[in-house]
Amino acid sequence: MVIWADPAKSDLRAIHDFIASDSKYYAKKVVQDIMDRTNILEEYPRIGRKAPEIDDENIREIFAYSYRIFYEIKSEKVYVIGIIHGRRDFTSTHVYRVKEP
Fold this sequence. Notes:
The chain is α+β, with helices and mostly antiparallel strands. It has a single domain (2-69, 81-98), classed as RelE-like (YaeB-like fold), CATH 3.30.2310. It contains 3 helices and 5 strands; from the N terminus they run βααββββα. The protein has a 5-stranded mixed beta sheet with strand order 1-5-4-3-2. Strand 2 and strand 3 (59-64) form a beta hairpin. Helix 1 (6-20) packs antiparallel against helix 2. It is globular. The N and C termini lie far apart (26 Å). Residues 97-101 have low confidence and may be disordered.
């Protein structure tokens, strides 16, 4: 089961809104492609690579367009925890703060 955490949902809305300022069509397409990309995680949760900035085998990432889609594997569930543009500073994102003590 793939579950979208609230921060990831907010990221997806922000991506949509940013792209929609130029094209509503492409905004919908990019969002749908990102969601489609995460659907494979239900069957193949380890398909993504370990996020290099986080020392945890269960925090992984896959890519869609220029976006890094972060997810966490917990038991039989996969949680999409955040989406950031590849050029953003990873340490300033909520994804980085998810595992902070």
